[in-house]
TrEMBL record:
Residues forming the catalytic site: 150, 349
Broad class of the protein's primary localization: membrane
UniProt name for this protein: Signal peptide peptidase A
Record Pfam families: Peptidase_S49
UniProt keyword list: Hydrolase, Membrane, Protease, Serine protease
NCBIfam families: SppA_67K, SppA_dom
Coiled-coil zones: none
Sequence similarity: Belongs to the peptidase S49 family.
One Gene Ontology term from the biological process aspect of the record: signal peptide processing
Length: 562
């Protein structure tokens, strides 16, 4: 009898957002979606034809939160008695390999190439600073923030970590390390103190890692698969994401979906938050308030949708757009449908703003969230343009018509107006956190001031309700809606037909309004500035560089936790 041995290639990134159009689907054919992998392992756990799982682990393709979501799925799969094996050529090759090893430790066996090593060297929380480089170019950021922990501004205003930035980064690293050490210790049968000691000794050679109990066998890929064939008999290899797609197309599952069962809608919001339509460039996406709002309105109206899970993977963006999306979240709840937020790798600042009005918020221990604060201002490039021999001139009507020009600095009066506006935004943000989360203003202030937290620390502070991934969020949504997980159909929204995509929306309430703007439209908007447009070419340049201009709720754009 031939059994199925599932395969996972974890050396490349997994997509967070499923493709929603033919072009994106074609680009993503070799890139599985994280949720497809998790769902595939859930289905395979009860499939008698599936004997086990073998995964190729390596590189730094996944975030800490994604790794924790995968680890949980692998452990659930292994708990049914099926074989789980992780193999790799090396964990780092004299480079950092902590996160790949943390992922591999969830498997029952770890196989390592004899020439490889284990770079289990710990966690680094690092930020990049551009102040000196921008100064040499003649670029001068004028930014203000609320408050000292809003370190996105430090990227442009500082040359090293401030005391507040260092304090927050230290806690992020410590929190991540706590969960990594605990996870490795539990899965490898080692004491946490022993794991920390091995981290301080790393990097370790393959033989030393085996002697320490970090790996089980030293072998090459061919030997791994030969061993599994001897153990399991005749096997058919199949990638997990291919397996789940074929299972979902089985006639009985298709008929089940057509049987008008209740639906839990999963709505994805990934990328920077802005007004207007969402956009996609290749496999990258953004969150447009019009697009996400249309999707949420559709879910609220659909009688088959019993609950909504909003999957958020965003470091923030526009305050106004974030507030508009939060309002739509509240309207879903007012329609009598539970809305549960599942935080992915990052759901901070504007990402937290659009999450906080949910019935329940779930995050992974390693999710980066919080950053309840605001920064605003502009970048002045006059010195750079002068060096290039480029000048600008014009006439104005209105005392503050030049206020947001990148060619001149703020006047003192304009700076005070900016400061007042930031105070208003911060007060509004924190007041809404208090109202949505049932916290006092004092409690919110202790966790706010722009500080980023891990999901675990955010839960301890009342910013998050529960630790868990997307599958757990679906279970919570089902419980709140009064239906069992087994009797619902979980569907990603929007789900548009080709005809709906081609014809475009007839109104802002039309389902087609929930489609993202394609790459051609987006490219045109970046290269062409229509007459009378408020977006000038220099503003487009700062957008492309990721430099904040005005009024953004954002987390550090050059932050790295590895």
């Amino acid at each position: 009898m031939t059994v199925t041995l599932l395969e996972l290639d974890l050396t490349a990134p997994l997509l967070e957002t499923p493709p929603q159009d033919p072009l994106s689907a074609a680009l993503a054919r070799r890139r599985p979606v994280l949720h497809d992998v998790v769902e595939g392992l859930r289905i395979a756990a009860s499939d008698p034809d599936v004997a086990g799982l073998v995964a190729h682990v390596g590189g730094h393709a996944l975030s800490l939160a994604q790794i924790q979501e995968l680890r949980a799925a692998v452990r659930r799969f292994a708990a049914t008695g099926k074989v789980t094996v992780a193999w790799t050529e090396t964990f780092g090759e004299l480079g950092p390999g902590t996160l790949p090893y943390y992922l591999a430790s969830a498997f029952d066996e770890i196989w390592l190439q004899p020439s490889g090593d284990v770079g289990l060297t710990g966690v680094v929380a690092e930020a990049v600073f551009l102040k000196e480089a921008l100064g040499k170019l003649g670029v001068h950021p004028q930014l203000s923030r609320r408050h000292e922990y809003k370190s996105a501004a430090d990227t442009f205003l500082a040359s090293q970590m401030t005391d507040a930035h260092r304090e927050a980064a230290s806690r992020l690293a410590a929190s991540a390390m706590e969960h990594i050490v605990t996870g490795i210790a539990e899965c490898r049968g080692l004491a946490p103190e022993r794991v920390r000691a091995l981290i301080d000794e790393a990097p370790l050679s393959a033989s030393d890692a085996k002697d320490a109990g970090l790996v089980d066998r030293l072998a090459y890929r061919a030997e791994v698969y030969e061993h599994l064939r001897r153990r399991l008999g005749e096997v058919r290899l199949r990638f997990v994401h291919r397996y789940v797609r074929s299972k979902l197309m089985e006639p009985r599952r298709v008929l089940t979906r057509l049987a008008h069962r209740p639906v839990v809608a999963v709505v994805h919001g990934a990328g920077s938050i802005h007004l207007g339509r969402s956009s996609r460039r290749g496999l990258s996406t953004s969150i447009g308030s019009d697009t996400l709002g249309a999707t949420l309105r559709r879910a609220a109206r659909d009688p088959r949708v019993r609950a909504v899970v909003l999957r958020v993977d965003s470091g923030g963006g526009s305050y106004v757009a974030s507030d508009a999306i939060r309002h739509e979240v509240r309207r879903v709840r007012e329609a009598g449908k539970p809305l549960v937020v599942s935080m992915a790798s990052v759901a901070a600042s504007g990402g937290y703003f659009i999450s906080m009005a949910a019935d329940s918020i779930l995050a992974q221990p390693g999710t980066l969230t919080g950053s309840i604060g605001v920064l605003g201002g502009k970048v002045v490039v006059r010195d750079l343009l002068d060096r290039l021999g480029i000048t600008r001139d014009g006439v104005t009507e209105g005392r503050h018509a030049w206020m947001f020009s990148s060619y001149r600095a703020f006047s003192e009066e304009e700076w005070q107006r900016l400061e007042h506006w930031l105070d208003q935004v911060y007060d509004d943000f924190t007041a809404k956190v208090a109202a949505d989360r049932g916290l006092s203003r004092e409690q919110v202030e202790e966790s706010a001031r722009g500080r980023v937290w891990t999901g675990a620390d955010a839960q301890a502070r009342g910013l998050v309700d529960e630790l868990g991934g997307l599958e757990r969020a679906v279970e919570v949504a089902c419980a709140r809606a009064g239906v069992s997980r087994e009797e619902v159909d979980v569907r990603a929204l929007p789900h548009l037909s080709l005809a709906e995509r081609v014809r475009g929306p007839e109104s802002t309430d039309d389902l087609a309004a929930s489609a993202a703007v394609g790459p051609t439209t987006r490219l045109t908007s970046l290269l062409v500035t229509p007459p009378g447009s408020a977006q000038r070419p220099l503003d487009v340049l700062t957008d492309l560089l990721g430099v904040p201009r005005l009024g953004v709720l954002t987390t550090p754009v050059l932050w790295d936790l590895r």
